[in-house]
C-alpha cells in the first residue's frame, strides 16, 4: 500500500490538533477501508525546503491504518528522542 494525499493530510490534522487543541480537523470522514486494512506503516516528518528530517517512526507489525497513522504521526512529531519536538511554527515547512 502506498501513502496517499489523504493519509498525509490526516497526519497533518493529527499534529495540528495536538498543537492547536481548538483547531477543527479538515479530514472529517475516515475511509472505512482504513479501519478494515491492517498494514505496517511509517510516518516521516521532514522540512521540505531544507531536506531536514524532523521525526520518523513506524512499525513492521500490521495494524489498522486509522489507528497507526494517528499513533505514529504524533510519536514521530513529538516523542522521537532523536529530534526536538515539532512546533506550530514549523508546520508550513513540513
What does this structure look like?
With 94 residues, the protein is α+β, with helices and mostly antiparallel strands. The protein has one domain (5-93): Glycoprotein, Type 4 Pilin. It has 3 helices and 2 strands, in the order ααββα. β1 and β2 form a beta hairpin. α1 crosses α3. It is globular, with a radius of gyration of 13 Å.
Total strand segments: 2
Fourth CATH level, the homologous superfamily: Hypothetical protein ph0010, domain 1
Number of domains: 1
Q: Work out the helicity level.
A: 25-40%
Instruction: List unreliable stretches of 5+ residues.
Output: none
Q: Which CATH first-tier class would you pick?
A: Alpha Beta
At CATH level 3, the topology is Glycoprotein, Type 4 Pilin
Q: What share of the residues does DSSP label as strand, in percent?
A: 15-25%
Number of helices: 3
Main β-sheet description: 2 strands, antiparallel
SSE succession: HHEEH
**Cα radius of gyration in angstroms:** 13 Å
Instruction: Tell me, briefly, the overall form.
Output: globular
The structure class reads alpha+beta
For the largest sheet, list the strands in their spatial order. Answer: 1-2
Distance between the termini: 22 Å
Corresponding CATH architecture:
2-Layer Sandwich
User: What value does the average pLDDT take?
Assistant: 90
In short:
With 94 residues, the protein is an alpha+beta fold. It has a single domain (5-93), classed as 2-Layer Sandwich (Glycoprotein, Type 4 Pilin). The chain contains three helices and two strands.
Amino acid at each position: 500500500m502506498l501513502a496517499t494525499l489523504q493519509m498525509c493530510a490526516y497526519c497533518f490534522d493529527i499534529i495540528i490538533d495536538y498543537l492547536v487543541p481548538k483547531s477543527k480537523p479538515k479530514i472529517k470522514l475516515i475511509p472505512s477501508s482504513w479501519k478494515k486494512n491492517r498494514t505496517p506503516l511509517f510516518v516521516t516528518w521532514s522540512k521540505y525546503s531544507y531536506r531536514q528530517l524532523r521525526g520518523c517512526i513506524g512499525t513492521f507489525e500490521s495494524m489498522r491504518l486509522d489507528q497507526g497513522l494517528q499513533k505514529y504521526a504524533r510519536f514521530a512529531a513529538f516523542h522521537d528522542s532523536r529530534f526536538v519536538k515539532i512546533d506550530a511554527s514549523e508546520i508550513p515547512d513540513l
